[in-house]
Structure formats: structure tokens, C-alpha cells
Write a structure and sequence with these properties.
The complex is a heterodimer of chains A (120) and B (150). Chain A has five helices and five strands, in the order H-E-E-H-E-H-E-H-E-H. With 120 residues, chain A is α/β, with parallel strands linked by helices. Chain A is globular. Chain A starts with a helix and ends in a 13-residue tail after the last helix. Chain B has a single domain, classed as Histidine kinase-like ATPase, C-terminal domain (Heat Shock Protein 90, 2-Layer Sandwich), CATH 3.30.565.10. Chain B starts with a strand and ends in a 7-residue tail after the last strand. The chains are: A alpha/beta (120), B alpha+beta (150). At the A-B interface, helix 2 and helix 3 of A face helix 1, helix 2 and helix 5 of B.
């Protein structure tokens, strides 16, 4: 799934990385807790978060995340946006809340970070 | 950045306690250095995560600290020394989920009691020592020699 498809599914706005929307996303994870993202995130992850301070972007950079989607209409602070520009990390924001945003992407076939799929 | 004749890279990063707006900057710089000198990308991510967790611990709990990056052809060594309250029981602090974090730390997305265990998980070798009332020191080592790699 491309970031452009994710943008459309989540009716998201692009905060940074308008020219990177063709990037391919293969898995995602959602958390407001950066401790968890650092412990369970994997390089290439699409991070969905409601944490809008600069730590969200710093954490994404440290773990080699592909992009960040901010939920509940949140936007990162200026310091976070500047770092994302510097590091080339696309940032999107959606009005959907965390559960709904994750559910939309999962139901369209984007798996979670663990690679585990639930029993049918 | 210092590069000596023995092919050793050494750099210090000063970290200030409670300085949340700059928290993570040292680790971001460390990651840039590791990428620049061409360290294997999986080691770079593991070392950057460990550095970030260690840096956040200083910001959250200590007065100040120094994170030193030393690289030789054989190993990457992150040494952290802080001045602060120290840790009463390091065995307890190493347990996942154990935390003495406050609400403002949790607002930053940290303080879940995952930091030290996550450093240990990512490192090839990890040592912690702490003197209550004085400070904590961490030695976090990554083998760069592929045969010794985790």
C-alpha cells in the first residue's frame, strides 16, 4: 500500500513529504507510548500516534520508520516538523481517532508490526 | 569528532536533566555519525535505540550526564555516566514494566519501565552500576566483528 493510498483512506492531510507519497508501506503500528515504539517498532514501520511533540519524530527517526500518521487531527510541534523535513520523514494528519484509523488500514490489508494475523 | 591514529572515533555528548525539548538530540547525532561512517544498518538502529533510551533516562531522572561514543574496528561502545539520584535496586529497574516515572515523563511518551530492559535487549553486552545519591553508569557494547555479532 502506498502512502498516497493511506492518505486517501484516512482522508489525511500532508504536513511534510508531499513528494514522498509513492513510498510503499508494508506494515504499521499504533501507539502514543514511545517506550513501546522503541521496544516493538521495526525499521520500515508506519507509525500512527497521538503524541504530537518532537519525541514522536525523534523516535520515528531512531527506529527508521517510513512515515508518521497523527491521529485525532493532531499536528507535531515546529521542532518536530523541522526534524522531519531534515530527515525526509513524511508526516500526515487524520481526523480519525487511533482505533478507527488503525482499523481502516488493517481492514484494507495493511498488517501490524508483529506480522501476526488474527485467527479467522 | 576525534579520530586518532589507532582508528578510534570518540565523541562526547552532554545531556541536561529535565531538558525535554532537547531530549533525543544526542542520539539523533549519534545515529547520523554511525550512518556517515557506514556502520551496518541493523547495528546502527540497535545502537541508536539504546542511546535514545539511555539519553531519555538522563533527561527524566538525572541532573546531567555524558554519553560517550567510542568506536574501534572491533566494537561500538556507548558509555553513559550521570549525576543524579542513582538507582536503589538495579535488578528491579531491569524488570520490564517497573517504573518510577512521573506524569510529565509519560506525557512525553516515556516512562513505561521499558528503557533499561530495551537497552539490554539491543546490546551485545550491557553493564549497569549505580550509587544511590550519586549517579548511574551504563556500558553498552555492540560487536562490529560479524562473527561475534548477536
Amino acid at each position: 500500500m502506498t502512502l498516497k493510498e493511506i492518505k486517501e483512506l484516512l482522508q489525511a492531510k500532508v504536513i511534510n513529504g508531499d513528494d514522498s507519497l509513492d513510498v510503499e508501506i508494508t506494515f504499521a503500528g499504533g501507539s502514543d507510548l514511545m517506550s513501546d515504539v522503541l521496544a516493538f517498532g521495526k525499521p520500515g514501520i508506519l507509525l500512527l500516534t497521538g503524541l504530537s511533540n518532537a519525541q514522536s519524530v525523534r523516535t520515528a527517526n531512531i527506529i527508521d520508520a517510513k512515515a508518521i500518521v497523527y491521529v485525532r487531527g493532531k499536528k507535531p510541534d515546529k521542532m518536530g516538523i523541522e526534524l522531519a523535513r531534515e530527515k525526509g520523514i513524511p508526516l500526515l494528519t487524520t481526523k480519525y481517532m487511533m482505533y478507527t484509523a488503525c482499523g481502516i488500514l488493517f481492514s484494507h490489508g495493511l498488517p501490524g508490526v508483529s506480522g501476526l494475523t488474527p485467527k479467522k | 569528532m576525534m579520530m586518532s591514529d589507532e582508528n578510534v572515533l570518540s565523541q562526547h555528548f552532554e545531556i541536561t536533566g529535565r531538558d525535554f525539548s532537547n531530549a533525543g538530540k544526542a542520539s539523533t547525532s549519534i545515529k547520523e555519525i554511525l550512518q556517515e561512517i557506514g556502520i551496518d544498518s541493523s547495528i546502527t538502529v540497535r545502537a541508536s535505540i539504546a542511546a535514545y533510551e539511555a539519553e531519555m533516562n538522563v533527561v527524566m531522572y538525572a541532573h546531567r550526564g555524558v554519553l560517550t561514543l567510542n568506536i574501534t574496528p572491533e566494537k561500538l561502545h556507548l558509555k553513559l555516566e550521570d549525576e543524579g539520584p542513582g538507582i536503589e535496586n538495579t535488578d528491579l529497574a531491569m524488570q520490564e514494566g517497573f517504573s518510577t516515572a512521573t506524569d510529565d515523563m509519560r506525557e512525553m511518551g516515556f516512562g513505561a519501565g521499558m528503557g533499561l530492559p530495551n537497552i539490554k535487549k539491543n546490546a551485545d553486552k550491557f553493564e549497569i552500576s549505580s550509587i544511590p545519591g550519586k549517579g548511574t553508569s551504563l556500558d553498552i557494547i555492540f560487536c562490529l566483528n560479524k562473527t561475534e555479532k548477536k
